[in-house]
Amino acid sequence: MRASPPPMKREAAKASGLRSVTSISYPRRQQYRHAARAIGYGALVLLVLGFAIAAAASRNGTLALVLVAAAGALALESYHSVRLAGRNRVGADSESQVRHRLHTLRRDGWEVRHGIGWPGGGDIDHLVRSPSGFGFVIETKTRSFNERHLRRTMNAARWAAGKRRRYSRGVVAVLCIARAHNLEEYRGEVLLVSADRLLHALRNRAGD
């Protein structure tokens, strides 16, 4: 059973305006949703095929053919959902990898939060604060990214930077590419970093 956070921490989080959406990451939620749809479609396939067999047994060939075609369409939907669940599982695993690395910062007094809701839609993957007051908005991608991802990360960092009392020394936008290696460079205002260099990059910029 998961313990509730202490009252003082709950009040501090509420006052800061930073609300955790859920302890389960967005890609993991999507994985479960698509997996559930795949199971649902699979069950319908079996049900419709059962009706098709019954129709064939009663010598209603036309109805049997229609039901078989419907079962085929449902099977395609199930396959599509399975593929989407697999893609989301990869993203969820990458995000879990980054979460695990970030948790080691807590031993040094860093604050680490995940799944933060913000006005831009969806949630911020990770939001951390160094003991010295630097903030870092961290979005996770597995291998690739595009300009839309860069803009979203930058906008999320600007939103967090508006909370000046909490992040007195500013907020850095970070896009972590989980399966890259030895990556640490800026793309405009966004820091691109691989998971293997993430902690080094954060500590270096926070002066820790």
Report a brief summary of the structure:
This protein is of the alpha/beta class and 208 residues long.
Question: How would you sum up this structure, described in words?
Answer:
The radius of gyration is 23 Å and the shape is elongated. The protein has a 7-stranded mixed beta sheet with strand order 1-2-3-4-5-7-6. The protein is 52% helix and 19% strand. The protein is α/β, with parallel strands linked by helices and 208 residues long. It has 2 domains: 27-94; 109-206, Trna Endonuclease, Chain: A, domain 1.
Q: Descriptors for this entry?
A:
52% helix, 208 residues, 2 domains, 7-stranded mixed beta sheet, elongated, alpha/beta
The major pleated sheet works out as: 7 strands, mixed
Helix-strand pattern? HEHHEEEHEEEH
Radius of gyration, in Å, reads 23 Å
Question: What is the CATH class name of the largest domain?
Answer: Alpha Beta
Strand content: 15-25%
Walk across the major sheet and give the strand order: 1-2-3-4-5-7-6
Overall pLDDT, averaged?
A: 86
Tell me which CATH architecture of the largest domain applies here.
3-Layer(aba) Sandwich
Q: Which of globular, elongated, flat, extended, rod-shaped describes the shape?
A: elongated
Content-based structural category: alpha/beta
**Number of DSSP E strands:** 7
- Low-pLDDT parts are 1-16
List the helices and strands and how they pair.
Layout: H1 7-16, E1 19-20, H2 26-57, H3 61-103, E2 111-117, E3 123-129, E4 135-141, H4 147-161, E5 171-177, E6 184-187, E7 190-194, H5 198-206
Parallel strand pairs: 4-5, 5-7
Antiparallel strand pairs: 1-2, 2-3, 3-4, 6-7
Helix pairs in contact: 2-3
